[in-house]
What does this fold into?
Amino acid sequence: MANTDQELAVLKAIGNNEKAAIEAVYKENFSLIQHFVVSNNGSEDDARDVFQEAMMVLYEKSKSPDFELTCQIKTYLYSVSRRLWLKKLQQSRRIESQVENFDRVVPVEEDLEEHEKLNQQYLIMRTAMGKIGEPCKSLIEAFYVHRKNMHEIAGYFGYTNADNAKNQKYKCLVRLKKLFFAQYKNA
It folds into this structure.
């Protein structure tokens, strides 16, 4: 099924982290997911958690140039949410039988696996960033999170010029990579 221009525009807006588009998708789709989760041994809090995770999957996918949405956003979110909730139920052993119409969903296992893998890597990186110490942590955040250029960083951190700041950033990245991969191997 080909998506309408409006659906593609909403998907692009989600990828650009536009608040209005994200809020609109929440308003249009949350009640459906909430009904499904609550009807299948869940609470409203469970529904919020599942929907939030599904939105994160959609957000990550929308940023990928290779991703092609082959159904409506509503269908995609429902399918991802459904898989997430069924997986959670199976893990908690609260499900005795298959939910009706289980096979009539968009296959999203690969998306979920990729999301979980990225989530694990994010947690490992966050831990590594916590261990790297100062000024490396602040320098890396200034460059990658706050998008400061090397001249701004040199001035802020007191380096004599942008090249010295760049060299220091490189050394910090080497340390961060060592910390990350040491933890990654253990995970």
Notes: Residues 94-98 have pLDDT under 50 and may be disordered. The chain has two domains: 5-107, 111-186. The first helix runs from residue 5 to 15. The radius of gyration is 21 Å.
